[in-house]
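Incident review: delayed structure delivery

Summary: a single-chain prediction request sat in the queue longer than the usual turnaround. Root cause was a stuck worker, restarted by the on-call engineer. No data loss occurred. The affected request and its eventual output are reproduced below so the record is complete for anyone auditing the incident later.

Affected input:
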Amino acid sequence: MAGWSGMQPRPRTKVTSSGGVVYRWENGKPLFLLLASNKRGVWCLPKGLIEQDEDEVTAAMREVREETGVSRVKLRGKVGLIRYQFGFRAKTFDKTVHFYLFETDQADAKVGTEHDSMEWMPYEKALETISYPNEKEMVNKAWSMIQAKAAHPPGDKPSSGQTAQESQPPAKG
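Output delivered after worker restart:
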């Protein structure tokens, strides 16, 4: 192991992004919007970096609009956050992504330049299709939020009293 003694650790950079779990109703069932990248071979949720002077929600709405063309959204709450690391150009990035639940009535989505295609999918298909386990968890939590809202009319509070922020996964570290 003597050869390893002169190596320096890769520089670490913290980045924060925001994204959306977007759904619309069709025939009484919610459909979720997923994006595909053929080059990377993945299906994912819309997300991107928070720009200067943007808050998490504004960034999530902008990313949804840029990546999907969906501009008419209603914020339904914070789903949670995910954390992960990735390496790029000799750096390690520690990334946090905040996800928000958005409802839309806009079926005519148009894929942006960062992805190759997108599709509205029922919950079960979305869970099977999405590539990243931590994003599957965000869709699962979004489904629970939608189900809870559907079971309680406006103004009625879920019996658990738990908010989306309280149900965030514990920070790993």
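Verification: Residues 133-151 form the longest helix (19 residues).
Action items: add queue-age alerting; document worker restart procedure.
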